[in-house]
Amino acid sequence: KRALDHLAEAEESHRTGKIPSVHLPPDVVTEMSGLVSAFNHRRLDVAQEKIDSAIQLMISKGFTRWEEGKDWKEKITNFKDAADAYKEGERFFSEGNLTASIIQMSNAHAATQYPDYKDKLDEYEAVDQKIEIIKQAKKNDPDEMLEAIDAYEALEANYSGNPAVDKSKTNLVNKSKDLVSQLKSEIDNFLQTYSFSDIFESQKKLKEVHAKIIQVKKLSGFMTSSVEVPSEDEKRISNKLSEVETAVNNLNQANATYVNNPKSANELYEKLFDDYSRDPEVNKLGRNLSKFRRNRKITNIALIVLGALISLAVLYFGISSIIKQIERV
Predict the structure, then answer these.
(1) Helices (H), strands (E): how many in the chain?
(2) How big is the CA angle at 134 (ends 133 and 140), to the nearest 5 degrees?
(3) Residues 218/183, Cβ–Cβ less than 8 Å
(4) Residue 11's pLDDT band (boundaries 50, 70, 90)?
(5) Is the Cβ–Cβ distance between 258 and 289 less than 8 Å?
(6) Whose CA is closest to 34, among 17, 20, 55, 48?
(7) How far apart are CA 5 and CA 11, in angstroms?
(8) pTM for this prediction
(9) d(C-alpha 47, C-alpha 58), whole Å
């Protein structure tokens, strides 16, 4: 019965091609061992030779169907196609065709799940994303343009000479020229028309303009051009910003101390009022100090009156003394 069972099992294996490894002929086992080693070391051509040899040996022994051999042959073919796709992806990338390179790398990784194929796919996708940032950057948006410049400089460090990267620079330089002209016009207009009557609003506007000057410098540096804001204008804005920030500090200090130290707060208020008499916060501080200022005014008037009375008294007694001296004579 056991012999009959073995015979039935052998006939089933021969019919279906599902032959257990333990039943493979020794010379086929040797070829399969070499195949696995070559495959694991990515020597796919050697693996191809081994599987072809193993299949021929099985056919010579009467096994026209062998599922394991068929599966290995398909797997090796797929991996060889993936290796070709990887090489094609590298070629497309070097030519600047990012879309095609990413498709090829994606196919190669999907077929093999090789970690280095995934790394290369991620690398190409990251390059494509940075170039997309450069393409999408609006020429009238400084933040987007500076982000695009950062993206390009990151690409230039590793991919200088790549057609897609070089093309993105040309696009970015042209947009940078337009933006520099726009920023310089905004800075000039600010210098000519802005009235520094509101402290906090002036601080905000000056910071914005100062940021625009820095943006112009970065854009000009990227374009390797000498288009910059005149140094005297930059110095003027820097000095005015420093002056306004001092005023902001004085205002904040006065607001914090006018209850407990009105005299000090009033001194700060008077400095502020000279330059910012129309500022709502300065005027509010003045109202908060009104009682102190009114009392001080009354005190000053009283001191003036008292001084005048003392002067009159001194004058009166002085004249009386002179008259008495004359009478004695």
Answers:
(1) 13, 0
(2) 100
(3) no
(4) low
(5) yes
(6) 48
(7) 10
(8) 0.68
(9) 17
